[in-house]
Write a structure and sequence with these properties.
Length: about 140
């Protein structure tokens, strides 16, 4: 099973529980914890079996293969961050449009209420003027 003490020493707290579910070679936890973090966080490796398979392959890989894996996972992380930023930007734009539309609706409703009160007031004034004229 996983070396819990090494996981605690080399990985961020939010990944420790997840890492404890895998058999990760101690050598790679010690020397390439950044690669282990990339594998654990990878969205393209969506099931635990696939991640475990990569952890099992690490000791058989040469440095060039390890570097390529690191590069692929780093680019994946960057692309996902870009997508997330675009998503957040779109979400903010939609929220802004919704808020503006809502404010316009509130303004329009208030203006309608004011016009209605003004019309009622004018009607009352007209009626009072009419009553005064009939009394004369």
């Amino acid at each position: 099973m996983a070396n819990i003490n090494l996981i605690k020493a080399k990985l961020p707290q939010e990944l420790r529980e997840q890492a404890g579910k895998f058999i990760i070679p101690d050598e790679f936890l010690t020397t390439m914890s950044d690669l282990i973090i990339l594998v654990l966080n990878s969205k393209s490796m969506d099931n635990p079996e696939e991640k475990q398979s990569w952890f099992n392959l690490l000791p058989m890989m040469n440095q060039e293969q390890i570097d390529k894996l690191r590069d692929i996972l780093t680019r994946e992380k960057q692309k996902l961050m870009e997508i997330e930023q675009k998503y957040e930007q779109k979400k903010d734009e939609l929220k802004s449009k919704y808020t503006q539309k809502r404010e316009e609706m509130v303004y329009t409703k208030k203006m309608e209420e004011i016009k209605q009160k003004e019309a009622e007031h004018n009607k009352i004034e007209d009626q009072q003027a009419e009553n005064l004229l009939t009394q004369i």
